[in-house]
Write a structure and sequence with these properties.
Largest interface: A-B, 37 and 39 residues
Number of strands of chain A: 2
Number of domains of chain A: 1
Shape of chain B: elongated
Largest sheet of chain B: 2 strands, antiparallel
Strand order of the largest sheet of chain B: 1-2
Helix content of chain B: 40-55%
Number of strands of chain B: 4
Oligomer: heterodimer
Strand order of the largest sheet of chain A: 1-2
Structural class of chain A: mainly alpha
Number of helices of chain A: 4
Chain lengths: ~130, ~140
């Protein structure tokens, strides 16, 4: 019986990718905590996961010239990165709330590890099925 | 898993904050470097931060931080009347740097906190990557 590994791993493999990208975005927010004019961003997890689940983007870009760029590389990125609405914007235009970002980063790390645990148990299940022990 | 870009971003934050700590150290060390001429006296230095994208290809990319330059403060130096000072000018004034020591201390604490934040990001990313590498084992 052939096993579709992608279907077996379920949403967790895609979720891991999105958590990985979110780590990057939150790291950028924390690194720019003192940069004037920097606006904090975050990933809309639901939209990102939905975009990662569908292989082809429904949005097409019409090209009328050979030199025009196609939209194929922007499929998953569009619309999922959003600017944070600041609770207390500072005078220099920076909207990074360090405490909020730290909390989001910690939460993201825990969710990442939870997804890893899920994946790990899936692999263990496969291994049990293969070895029969 | 978090890509190696996370390390680059956190490292850019670390280096920017250490530049800031350097300027604070320089300002504090020179807080009492007086001069007889207001044009040659030491002026407080501060770094200018700027967000920089890791790649130019995508506007959606996460960005690191870099120091765009170090600017000298335009605040006027403090004139002090000390006619007995060997550097005093004809009117008996010496000029102290426009370093605000309290401001510099606050700047130092802020830089240290942000530095620690970036270290924390590095550590967490490293742990997540190592956990990903161990995926499926044991």
């Amino acid at each position: 019986m052939p096993i579709n590994l992608d279907a077996y791993l379920g949403v967790h493999a895609e979720a891991l990718k999105v958590y990985g990208r979110r780590t990057e975005v939150l790291a950028a927010n924390l690194a720019n905590a003192d940069t004037p004019g920097y606006r904090a961003r975050d990933i809309d997890f639901r939209a990102a996961l939905a975009a990662a689940g569908s292989p082809s983007s429904p949005v097409k870009l019409t090209t009328t010239h050979d030199a025009h760029l196609s939209a194929q590389h922007t499929q998953a990125a569009d619309g999922e990165l959003k600017y944070r609405i600041p609770l207390a914007p500072s005078l220099d235009g920076n909207t990074v709330d360090v405490q909020l970002e730290q909390a989001a980063f910690a939460e993201n790390a825990v969710r990442f590890q939870a997804t890893l645990t899920f994946l790990s148990s899936r692999f263990r299940g496969l291994l049990t099925a293969i070895t029969g022990q | 898993m978090p890509s190696f870009k996370t390390f680059d971003i956190a490292a850019s934050g670390l280096s920017a904050q250490s530049v800031r700590l350097n300027t604070v150290a320089s300002n504090l060390a020179n807080a009492d470097s007086v001069s007889g001429d207001p044009r040659t006296v030491y002026r407080a230095r501060h770094p200018l931060f700027e967000a920089v994208r890791a790649t130019l290809s995508s506007a959606q990319d996460a960005s690191g931080v870099r120091v765009r330059g170090i600017v000298e403060s335009n605040a006027p130096p403090q004139a002090r009347y000390e006619p007995g000072h060997p550097l005093a000018d004809e009117q008996g004034y010496i000029y102290a740097p426009n370093v605000n020591v309290v401001e510099e201390m606050v700047d130092m604490i802020s830089a240290a906190r942000t530095y620690q934040n970036n270290i924390e990001v590095l550590n967490t990313s490293k742990e997540l990557m190592l956990a990903t590498l161990r995926l499926g084992q044991s």
